[in-house]
Amino acid sequence: MYRTGLSAVAVMAALLLSACSSATTDVLQPTVSVSIGQQLIDLKKAKDAGALSEKEYQAQVKRLIDSVR
Which of 23, 25, 52, 67 could be cross-linked to 47 through a Cys-Cys bond (beta carbons 3.0 to 4.6 Å apart)? Predict the structure, then answer.
């Protein structure tokens, strides 16, 4: 009786573990809804704080504007 119960537990554990590993690994990207205007404001703040150089700032602004065309 003990062996039957132990076997049943082992089978259940194997089934549970096999269900955890899936062949598909889809990664969902988070949906972020930040307006273009807010992104431009954030870039300006980063430049003003010294986190971005003028060249980096201009490149990021161009990239952002080009992304909505």
Answer: 52
Q: pTM of whole model > 0.70?
A: no
Q: Would you state the pLDDT for residue 2?
A: 52
For 1-69, the three-class secondary structure string (H helix, E strand, C coil) is CHHHHHHHHHHHHHHHHHHHCCCCCCCCCCCCCCCHHHHHHHHHHHHHCCCCCHHHHHHHHHHHHHHCC
- Domain assignments of the chain as residue spans, ordered by start: 32-69
Tokens 């809804």 locate to 33
Cα separation of 51 and 60, whole Å?
Answer: 12
> Cβ contacts of residue 52 below 8 Å, gap of 6+?
43, 46, 60
